[in-house]
Amino acid sequence: QNGEEAINVAKQVNPDLIILDVMMPKMDGIEACRIMRAMPEFKSTFMVFLTARSEEYSEIAGFHVGADDYIAKPIKPRALMSRINAILRRNTSEESDATVQDKIEIADLVIDRDSFLVYKGEQKIVLAKKE
Fold first, then answer.
1. How far apart (Å, rounded) are the C-alpha atoms in residues 122 and 89?
2. Which phi-psi region, left, alpha or beta, contains residue 66 (left: φ > 0; alpha: ψ -120 to 50)?
3. Given this model, what pLDDT does residue 45 score?
4. Residue 6 CB contacts under 8 Å (≥ 6 apart), including other chains
5. What angle in degrees, to the nearest 10, is found between the helix axes of 29-37 and 56-64?
6. Closest CA to 29 of 75, 62, 63
7. 36 near 48, Cβ under 8 Å?
8. Distance between CA atoms of 61 and 37, rounded to whole angstroms?
9. What does the alpha-carbon distance between residue 28 and residue 33 come to, in Å, rounded to a whole number?
10. What one-character DSSP code corresponds to residue 107?
11. Helices 3-13 and 29-37, interaxial angle, to 10°?
């Protein structure tokens, strides 16, 4: 409905993705995005503009305040869904990257992923490069 309501609803729902329009009453989408990006709870939330405003200065303003994408209307529904899914996949790959451990320890076996070394107890195990 409007930028102020977008912020209030986002605070309640805590979504992974927020789609904003540049042209909204009370508070435009650029200002709403700027305010939400300043809030810690929305630092990692994806924000996308879907708008009829296709001028370069509007697009630059959107990215300047923290938009992850800027989509000008008209856009075909399937193309829109593909772009949204691509953005959401980034979140999944970032989360899986964050869960990868540098060292894997199983009993007295240690695999050091950073240095590509394997130890059994205090003994270093030499492996062929392909292993």
1. 41
2. left
3. 93
4. 18, 20, 24, 29, 32
5. 20
6. 62
7. no
8. 14
9. 9
10. T
11. 40
d(CA 71, CA 75): 8
Interval 68-82 mean pLDDT: 93
DSSP notation for 20-84:
E-S--SSS-HHHHHHHHHTSGGGTT-EEEEEES---HHHHHHHHHTT-SEEEESP--HHHHHHHH
CA distance 13 to 10: 5
More confident residue, 79 or 115: 79
Angle CA(24)–CA(25)–CA(31) in degrees, nearest 5? 60
Supply angle C-alpha 25, 74, 70, rounded to 5: 65
Compute the average pLDDT of residues 82-89.
Answer: 90
Please calculate the CA angle 18-21-23 and round it to the nearest 5 degrees.
150
Token duo for residue 24: 């909204």
Q: pLDDT band at 94, cuts 50/70/90?
A: low
Q: How far apart (Å, rounded) are the C-alpha atoms in residues 17 and 32?
A: 14
